[in-house]
Amino acid sequence: MQPSVESLVRLLESYRGRDKVIRTVCYGSQLVGGVLSRKAETDVSSHRLGKRLLLFSAQLSHCRTVLRLFDDLSMLAYSHSYGFGGREEDVGVRWISVLTNVADQLYYPCEHIAWAADAELIKVKSDKWWLFGTVLWGTSLLLGILRSLRVLLLLKKKLKRYERDGAGHSRSQLRRQMRGEVLSILSSMADLSNAIHWMPPGFLWAGRFPNWLVGLMGTISSLIGLIQMNAGHSNETDSTLSSPHSEE
């Protein structure tokens, strides 16, 4: 079996890896489907294919929502192990991470209630619970961006210090970490643009993104996530600063 196929199989065997693959296919389908569905006047067959891809994307999104019904305990275990971030070197990073964990933890029950309401398992309106979830997700993304910016500032200061000391190995390690934080910022910004799109009309650009643009932003974020999973996780054990928890 080819190494690339073996890597894909290993990725699909893990829950997080499979979720990232489903996420990438979901947003990729929305991107292509959104582009094709705009060709209604010129190409009917492309329009129909685009609509089918959008339906496929919606089903994959629903699949991920159902799978997240079982994520509460793993998030709670992570939040408990992180605590108040006593192992962090920087107070700012510590409290941003704590607030991010709180937002992530609260996100799950909001999404579960919204899902249960849509499935008619409980008699409540789902709209406000989806909104609460979107606000919490956006808050988590914004905090993640602030955290990465703070970490980049700290890493830059350390890099200057190591350059004076001539520590070559440490400098290359710090540069890898800095590239990882930059990718995290780009990923979170792409997701945050979609989170704002799903807010109520009248808030910034809420509701103004066409399907293809939502798909593009999500695809960018998903591909970055796959790159980080493939290359970044191997460096987590020797990170100078603790890595943030990521859910979306």
UniProtKB/TrEMBL annotation:
GO cellular component, one term: peroxisomal membrane
Transmembrane segments: 129-155, 212-231
GO biological process, one term: peroxisome fission
Primary localization class, coarse: membrane
UniProt-annotated location(s): Peroxisome membrane
Keywords for the protein's UniProt record, in alphabetical order: Membrane, Peroxisome, Transmembrane, Transmembrane helix
Pfam family, any one: PEX11
Origin superkingdom: Eukaryota
Record-given protein name: Peroxisomal membrane protein 11C
The species this protein was found in: Perca flavescens (American yellow perch)
